[in-house]
From TrEMBL:
This is HTH luxR-type domain-containing protein. PANTHER family: DNA-BINDING TRANSCRIPTIONAL ACTIVATOR DEVR_DOSR (PTHR44688). The lineage of its organism: Bacteria, Bacillati, Actinomycetota, Coriobacteriia, Eggerthellales. Keywords: DNA-binding, Membrane, Transcription, Transcription regulation, Transmembrane, Transmembrane helix. CDD domains: LuxR_C_like (cd06170). The keyword Transmembrane helix applies. GO terms for biological process: regulation of DNA-templated transcription. It comes from the Bacteria. It comes from Slackia equolifaciens. One of its GO terms (molecular function) is DNA binding. InterPro entries: Sig_transdc_resp-reg_C-effctor, Tscrpt_reg_LuxR_C, WH-like_DNA-bd_sf.
Length: 482
């Protein structure tokens, strides 16, 4: 999609200075460079702390906006050569360097997956779908504005310059306010705040003319740039939280956003812009947008909680089945070995077989307990099977270890503890991370809260659960029976 947009942009911008094929090819190179840069940036940001990641994203956005504006001031024939022989090679070199040094800075949360791939994608979608709707409808509005400006006789370069100025201004604002945003506001909640702006924009857009319209367009581009920059940070944090490929999360999110942007431009072209006689279509779109966003804000939490409860029940059933399978296989192993020993007329071997089968069962149950308490990975040695043929020792086959079973069991216990003690959603998140052994600084970074806010939630958790330390909390979670 980015490459196609680059081809169209190159065809429109450089068609007067060069043949259409040259302009389209140059635009394609620009689109490829942008796509490579976004992928490398997303991989880098996902492995940084949230606060540092925000600074990197906003600085990169400001630099890209300045580079575009400076390039726009050059003659068209110079722009083509600059894109082909400077911008594209530099971005390619940056991506290659990021690939080489990336593993050395890889965040430890990418090392262990909390659950299977489908479950992780579902949880990420649950966290992102409401912010995605808000950003997507703001992109729809931007697409309508861009197309209408061109229909009214505005130049494409002027529209792009307005967008880059908005991005530069948004980057400066975010850099100045990032400390306050990081410590006091959730990124997802901040994106949801644009809902009233979208509703007001759809309502006022057909009636604005002259300077008021120009001011409105500038504000709209700035707000969209702010949400787009925060989108990068949010996608990176979500990818890290669920151990998903950062490019996958950002690609899916941005793909939907830019699809809405293209749909807005297509609608505006189809209906001839925002003329007074034909602007009723905009009110229809505004009604649909406001309705969908209202449903997302009012019913979204209930739907999300319902999906999470269904998912938790499925995890409980899967974990129980796995535990039963371990126990049954252990008992069956002892029984079979006992029968073999009896059949050979060797009572000593039979008793030894039964004893080792029981030991095998106890070891598997110990493994499950260690996994559910979030402890270190089990290093229990495989039980030794009875000597059935002479003095040769044989090892009993073990069930292949599942790295996700321990985290799933711990999350299941935390969900039960939260329900039992009446914890709020935020207290549940803090309690779960505490049960994983995380400290206040880590929790503040993961939940984008201040340390004082985390301590306040932790005190509430301790008070409701009747514990006085993190170790007591872990003990309560470990001993909790559903």
């Amino acid at each position: 999609m980015v490459v196609a947009a680059g081809v169209l942009l190159g065809f429109q911008v450089w068609r007067d200075a060069y043949p259409p094929a040259v302009g389209a090819a140059t635009g394609g190179l620009l689109g490829c460079a942008s796509a490579f840069f976004f992928c490398a940036l997303q991989e880098l940001v996902a492995n940084l702390r949230v606060y540092v990641a925000g600074i990197v994203v906003f600085c990169a956005a400001a630099i890209s906006a300045l580079a575009y504006l400076l390039m726009g001031a050059l003659p068209a024939d110079v722009q083509v050569w600059l894109v082909a022989f400077v911008c594209f090679p530099l971005v390619t070199a940056f991506c290659v360097a990021a690939r080489k040094v990336g593993p050395a800075f890889r965040h430890p949360m990418f090392q262990a997956a909390p659950s299977s791939g489908g479950d992780k994608i579902l949880r990420a979608a649950i966290d992102l779908w409401r912010p995605l709707l808000c950003v997507a409808f703001s992109a729809l509005l931007i697409g309508i504005i861009r197309a209408d400006t061109i229909i009214d006789g505005g130049a494409l370069n002027g529209v792009n310059d307005s967008g880059m100025l908005g991005l530069l201004l948004a980057s400066i604002v975010l850099l100045g306010c990032w400390r306050m945003i990081y410590t006091r506001t959730l990124l997802s909640k901040l994106q949801l705040l644009i809902f009233p702006l979208i509703a007001t924009s759809f309502l006022l857009l057909p009636f604005l003319t002259g300077q008021s319209r120009g001011l409105f367009v500038s504000i709209a581009f700035t707000v969209f740039s702010i949400t787009s920059s925060l989108m990068v940070v949010t996608c990176a944090r979500t990818a890290r939280m669920y151990a998903l490929p950062p490019v996958l999360v950002f690609g899916a999110f941005s793909g939907v956003v830019y699809l809405f942007l293209a749909c807005g431009a297509l609608l505006s072209y189809s209906f001839g812009g925002l003329r007074e006689a034909t602007s009723l279509w905009l009110f229809a779109i505004a009604l649909v947008a406001i309705y969908v966003l209202s449903m997302a804000l009012t019913l979204g939490r209930r739907l999300t909680d319902g999906v999470r409860r269904t998912k938790a029940a499925r995890d409980v059933a899967r974990a129980s089945a796995k535990t039963n399978a371990f126990s049954n296989s252990s008992v069956l192993l002892g029984a079979v070995a006992n029968r073999v020993g009896e059949a050979r007329g060797d009572a000593r071997h039979a008793g030894d077989a039964a004893l080792r089968g029981e030991e095998y069962a106890r070891q598997h149950m110990a493994d499950d307990a260690k996994n559910e308490s979030g402890g270190a990975a089990s290093r229990t040695k495989g039980a030794v099977a009875p000597r059935m043929h002479g003095d040769a020792d044989r090892r009993a086959p073990r069930e292949p270890s599942d790295p996700s079973s321990g985290v799933v069991g711990l999350e299941r216990k935390c969900a039960g503890v939260a329900k039992h003690y009446g914890l709020t959603a935020r207290e549940t998140e803090v309690m779960t991370l505490l049960a994983h052994g995380r400290d206040v600084a880590f929790i503040a970074d993961e939940l984008t809260l201040s340390k004082n806010t985390v301590r306040t939630h932790a005190k509430g958790v301790f008070s409701k659960m009747g514990v006085h330390s993190k170790q007591e909390l872990i003990d309560v979670v470990y001993l909790f029976e559903e």
